[in-house]
Amino acid sequence: MAIEVGKPFPNAQFPYVEYSPETGDDVTACGIPAPLDTAKEFAGKTVVIVAAPGAFTPTCQANHIPPFVKQIKEFKSKGADLVCFLTANDPFVNSAWGKANGVKGDILMLSDPNAQWSQDNNVALDLTSRGLGWRTGRWGLIVKDGKVTYFEQEKNPAGQPEVSDASTLLSKL
Predict the structure, then answer these.
(1) I want to staple 93 with a disulfide (CB 3.0 to 4.6 A). Which of 6, 74, 89, 116 is the partner?
(2) Residues with active-site annotation
(3) Within 10 A of 63 (CB to CB), how many other CB atoms are there?
(4) How far apart are CA 101 and CA 105, in angstroms?
(5) CB of 100 within 8 A of CB of 111?
(6) Cα separation of 74 and 96, whole Å?
(7) Contact (CB, 8 A) for 102 and 122
(8) Considering the entire predicted model, what is its pTM?
(9) Using one digit for the tens of pLDDT, what is the confidence trace for 113-158?
(10) Mean pLDDT for the chain overall
């Protein structure tokens, strides 16, 4: 299956660790992963999803996630009910990545184990030759009431984000 504008979002069960004030910003303290059912949680909502090849990797850490964290209020004011970051990292790593960047539940840090959903939907990145396995590609997507209204993949996933960056996605809301 391929993701296409105007078509329904391909549903998934993405594991994540819900932010908890009890563990606060401590990246070494983590909750228990639970699945996020996109069919249920995205219904009737406007959802921004940003995929990145890996938590704490150079481009993802330096150039991709920080503008979303800084501009989360603008996303909410422009109608985004949910903003999600998706990587192939496990939910514990994604939780720590969120905490390290000041995410306190306002952005959901979702996992695509083994990049299986990404592979099934032709949005994965094969980095096995570099010893990194299959990863989520770098892309941005907006879902409104279950339908994809914006979707673009980065031509150079290692480069500066151009179609999945915060300013582009804000302009598409």
Answers:
(1) 89
(2) 60
(3) 14
(4) 12
(5) no
(6) 24
(7) no
(8) 0.93
(9) 999 999 999 998 888 888 777 889 999 999 999 999 999 999 987 7
(10) 91
